């Protein structure tokens, strides 16, 4: 069950990452054209950077589901099969622990209960916690950075899900993608 949910989530992550990759290309081309005609749109650079950050985190999470993460296997390749399998499970456990810490860090950083305790008043929240996460604007887009940093929640959830699925049932496979 967890494996199927993980596979579905990984497909969504890859689809969104692909969409973001296309948007980055379009944004960079738009930037080239507008600069060439002497009418640069400065917000395009910032939006392309944020799209690339989201794409990277989504792709990294999906890569864990499919077992396509970068790995140094010089030690595990030399191990007998039972020990190599044990080492792989240990790595899956460490990934899951990392993901759980990421969820915890996001919880501490975003402080949703503290925000709710202050009646979702960001001014009162900032005054009490000195945490400006909900009010800090982006440089040129003028949107709140919370929308950019929200990828950390998505990444932490995805890595937790994929790490748990890998630990319980082995590496995820999806015939549409793993070919």
UniProtKB/TrEMBL annotation:
TM region positions: 12-33, 53-78, 90-110, 146-168
Domain Tripartite ATP-independent periplasmic transporters DctQ component: from-to ranges: 24-169
Listed GO CC annotations: plasma membrane
Molecular functions (GO terms): transmembrane transporter activity
InterPro entries assigned: DctQ, TRAP_DctQ
Cellular localization per UniProt: Cell inner membrane
Chief localization: membrane
Keyword tRNA processing in annotation: no
Pfam family, one: DctQ
A Gene Ontology BP annotation from the UniProt entry: C4-dicarboxylate transport
Topology in membrane: Multi-pass membrane protein
Superkingdom assignment: Bacteria
The keyword Membrane appears for this protein: yes
Alphabetized UniProt keyword annotations: Cell inner membrane, Cell membrane, Membrane, Transmembrane, Transmembrane helix, Transport
Oligomeric and partner information: The complex comprises the extracytoplasmic solute receptor protein and the two transmembrane proteins.
Function: Part of the tripartite ATP-independent periplasmic (TRAP) transport system.
Family that this chain belongs to: Belongs to the TRAP transporter small permease family.
Identification of the protein by name: TRAP transporter small permease protein
Lineage: Bacteria, Pseudomonadati, Pseudomonadota, Alphaproteobacteria, Rhodospirillales
């Amino acid at each position: 069950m967890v494996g199927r949910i993980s596979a579905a989530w990984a497909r969504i992550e890859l689809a969104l990452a692909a969409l973001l990759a296309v948007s980055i290309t379009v944004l960079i081309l738009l930037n080239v054209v507008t600069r060439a005609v002497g009418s640069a749109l400065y917000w395009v650079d910032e939006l392309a950077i944020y799209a690339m950050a989201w794409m990277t985190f989504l792709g990294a999470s999906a890569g864990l589901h499919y077992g396509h993460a970068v790995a140094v296997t010089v030690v595990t390749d030399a191990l007998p099969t039972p020990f190599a399998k044990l080492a792989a499970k240990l790595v899956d456990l460490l990934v899951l622990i990392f993901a759980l810490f990421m969820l915890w860090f996001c919880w501490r950083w975003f402080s949703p209960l503290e925000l709710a305790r202050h009646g979702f008043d960001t001014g009162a929240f900032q005054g009490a916690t000195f945490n400006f996460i909900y009010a800090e604007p982006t440089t040129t887009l003028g949107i709140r950075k919370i929308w950019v940093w929200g990828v950390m929640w998505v990444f932490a959830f995805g890595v937790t899900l994929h790490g748990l699925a890998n630990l319980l049932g082995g590496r995820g496979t999806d015939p549409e993608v793993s070919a």
